[in-house]
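Entry 14. Two folds queued back to back today. First construct below, sequence then structure tokens.
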Amino acid sequence: MTAAEPSAGPSAPPYVAVVGPGDAGPEQCAAAEAVGRLLAGRGAVVVCGGLGGVMAAAARGARDGGGMSVGLLPGRDRSAANPYLTLALPTGMGQLRNGLVVAAADAVIAVGGSWGTLSEIALALRAGLPVIALGGWRVDGPQPQRPSGSPGPAPADTPEAAVADALAAVSDRTQDS
């Protein structure tokens, strides 16, 4: 897997994956909803796994912020999607759809953590995508993968910081290409 090129065209919106547990608690859901709303307010498209928890909260935030969200569902049934998505795409791939979520994104914001979230963080880092962690996993790897020299996701303390860091990283990647 190689780093995806940032969204095509000078006016194309950034696509930011918001990943996290499907069984997230109220604090994680509130953070994900704020992230979705803030991303929508900055013109970004929210990409997620399309189900509940963090995914539903981010999609709800994007909708409430006037933005767009795309859910890549693990199964083949569109009716399994959360009701806040703009577009629900069934993949029939189960957890393997995590790779599609990452591949569709220009950056990843992880809210909280679960094993599926960890897989998305790993795939994104392996692909060279910017990853921002808002709570949840702290991952140290054997090799630096960010300019700061830290090998894992960049930590953020607030939804505002997570969104600002993710969009700045996308902008930096766009200018470099």
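Second construct, same run, same settings:
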Amino acid sequence: MLPFFLASYPLNDAAETVNVMGSSISRVMGGTSGIMYTILCKAAYASLKANGQSDVTSNHWAEALEASTTAVSKYGGAIAGFRTLLDALIPASQALQQRLKAGDDTVTAFVLSSEAALAGAESTKLMQAGRSSYVSPEIVASVPDPGAMAAAAWYRAAALAVRNTLESSLPAGSSAP
């Protein structure tokens, strides 16, 4: 099935690829998460398209991630601290922007922001909010929010895939930043 999907993705256009990802998600992922991920992708698409350039920079990606989390918050009604995917993606977005402003290279900024996503997801163990408000505090304190953990996992996987792809394309003996 993956080759079928990949064949329909316009991989030479980052904004359109994200747009098609959103459409794919809306077809195959049910529940609230499916809707939130569709919103996430569609907001990223709109942000990437708004820059009006064919080349997408790391700063454009950082802006798209921020626009995405803002859209999910707006339409989903959650904010940081509500035990949702936003508890992973908002820290990731903030870290990505901070690391890029500090002068880190794109790959390093992406990987470090994925660590912030994981830390944000883990921090949901300390939160009593959202759908978990009816679960006893003892149970909530031992389990991070599944949606936040899922978001952190795919974000981290993407960061490591970018780093590993870059490393495999470098001459022997070199390493990615």
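Quick look at the second one. The mean pLDDT is 89. The first helix runs from residue 2 to 7.
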